[in-house]
Amino acid sequence: MAADDEGKIAPLELDEAKARELEEKFDSEIRFRPLSPMAARLVGVLLVTLSIFHYYTAGFGLLSEVVHRGIHLSFVLGLIFLVFPFTRRGYDQPAQSSLVRPLGISLIDWALAVGAVVAVLHVPFIPLDDLAFRVGNPTTTDVVLGGILVLVLLEATRRSVGWPLPIIALLFMAYSIWGPSMPGILVHPGATFSQLINHLYLTTQGIYGIALGVVATYVFHFVLFGVFATRIGLGQLFLDCAAWVAGRYAGGPAKVSIFGSALFGMISGSSVANTVTVGSLTIPAMIRLGYKRTFAAAVESASSTGGQITPPIMGAAAFLMIEFLNLPYTTIILAAIVPAFMHFFGVLIQVHFEAKRNGLRGMTREELPDLKEAFKRDWPTVIPLVVLIGVLLSGYTPYLAAFWGITLCVAVGLLNPRRRMSFTEVFEGLRDGAKYALAVGAAAATVGIIVGVVTLTGVGFKISYIVTSTAAQMATFVGTLVPAAWFGPQTLTLLFTLIMTGVVCILMGCGIPTTANYIIMATIAAPTLGLLGVEPIVAHFFVFYYGVLADITPPVALAAYAAAGMAGADPFKTGNTAFRLGLGKVLVPFVFVFSPSLLLVTANFTWSNFLIAFIGCVLGITCLASALSGWLLVRTAAWERLLLVIAAVLLVVPELMSSLIGLALIVPVLLHQFAGHRMQPAL
After folding, report:
1. Per-residue pLDDT tens digits for 245-293
2. CB 585 within 8 A of CB 548
3. What pTM was estimated for this model as a whole?
4. Which of 342, 405, 438, 509 could form an S-S bond across to 225 if both were Cys, CB 3.0 to 4.6 Å?
């Protein structure tokens, strides 16, 4: 969205080429180094081949687990060494060919790419009978190639994702080998290098494990679907719908940002992709309307992180939960509906109060899109999404649903006369869809190292014991300060466990991708919550939601920093403001732990518990938003803000008595606000 020189906001016009350029600029995971023309063609062909491989297997049958994952990983690691430089300075080097840099790529990178492919494909092509014999008794070749794979995998992850995840993996590997030297409860017999490589390389509990399997089987297909759905115009239709629904109200472009990001999140599980695509239109308009640059960037980034928690795609989380929890896909997306609503509602209500406080207008009739014309132009683009959701709800596999969604996207793109795709654009869609697979594929395989060490050493149970013991000690201390009728020891223990778990999730997410963070925390932290009686699906949603918060939590708030770069705002201030806007996402996970009915699918669901929790959440988030924004009906006084914060905490506690006390606290605030509102015209 843009604005003309007279202050009029122009209609929404999504420039996909500009959005892709911005995404490559701000998302380091898909920014490639300069490539010579020949190298660019080679990389393009390999990326398209990877997409075609996944498209074909999704529709006509997957290969065996290890073979399918091995082929995927061989492409991913081989390509990473061709497109990601050793250091950041490599992005500035010219793509010139020479004897030591064939096609502009160093001989070392070519060697690493070849070594990665050979090491990865060694295991899938070992005969099954022979592999079963060698697990626990690896040959020298197995150990050497396994060691090479670990090294090149860590280097590939460092190049594409950064240092934190490889460092964590190295620490876990060190723990597995030097177990006898560990202190206290962390001590264990230890493993030899050969035993460690055997477990990580030859079994499906390590590198070839569930994390890589989910990325290779589910995530890739839905990312590819999202790319094609955007290319055929579904993203534009979503933005037109968002503008028509929310644009006319106070602070219109900011509310368009929220609704647009929610809709766009249905087809894209990437926070940064959502931020740059929707933000390329809404951020300039928000600034032109009167929002501060920091706030405009924060609104877009906070809204866009909701893409990872919005059904039906939810990034990779939904598909990982299928594997971890052995639950139907429909159960996962049904559980995600209310928490996702709470996140967007929390951002929306703060934006509304901010707009009212600053007297910001909505969009005029001339600035709004013609929804009838938009549907007349783009209605065929809805067909792939409807079919995809229909196939999912019918009980078929997610990758088959993605297959039909991709197929129909291409068909609509080639046949729709109003927005026709060329065969070149189909090629580019296949290429760009595979781009997203590189960083997340390497990260998933590296997470396999961490998960492998956990299963090899049993450290997950030890960490769970340490956390729950510490929480119990804190609960005992606090229990001496508050009446026992308020909080029992078990409730306090769970509360402190949740707080510690949430903090760790955010800290971990500051350095590693959301998908990797979720897998690690689901392996280590979720069992901790299970020890305290939390249902598995609730525990998994808790650690996932807190991991997503890292995208808007400084010091490494990727979505916030991308939005800040587009807005010309201070990145750190943008991250702080985005975190404030996303506080609903901080509160809600605690609510669905203490009142699981909010997730709709838990064992002891009742409508009465659901309504108390739902209404309490809505009111609590509204009170907190008012306190933070300094506005309800008129500006709030300091004493009103204090009462609103206390009321917010009491209202989100899913108990009737605390909710009633919270309601009582906001009565004097409402009376004072109504009185001030009646006097406002006279002022």
Report:
1. 888 888 888 898 898 888 887 777 678 888 888 888 889 888 888 888 9
2. yes
3. 0.89
4. 405
- For the chain, the average pLDDT equals 88
Q: What is the CA radius of gyration of the chain?
A: 26
- 45-57: string of b/e by CB count within 10 Å (b at 16+)? ebbbebbebbbeb
Answer yes or no: is pLDDT of 175 > 90.
yes
- Say what the pLDDT of residue 395 is: 83
Query: Which phi and psi (to 5°) does residue 603 adopt?
Result: -60, -40
Q: What is the DSSP string of 575-635?
A: HHHHHHHTHHHHHHHHHHHH-GGGGS-STT--HHHHHHHHHHHHHHHHHHHHHHHTBSSSB
Quick one: tokens of 383? Answer: 């067909």
**Res 10: pLDDT:** 58
Domain residue spans of the chain: 606-683
Q: Which helix (H) or strand (E) holds 508?
A: helix 489-509
The whole-angstrom separation of Cα 555 and Cα 120 is 35
* In the block, residue with structure tokens 């790529």: 105
Show contacts of 624-628: CB within 8 Å, 24+ apart. 624/346, 624/583, 624/584, 624/587, 624/648, 625/346, 625/349, 625/350, 625/353, 625/584, 626/353, 628/350, 628/580, 628/583
In this structure, what token pair is assigned to residue 241?
Answer: 């719908």
Amino acid, single-letter form, for residue 639: W
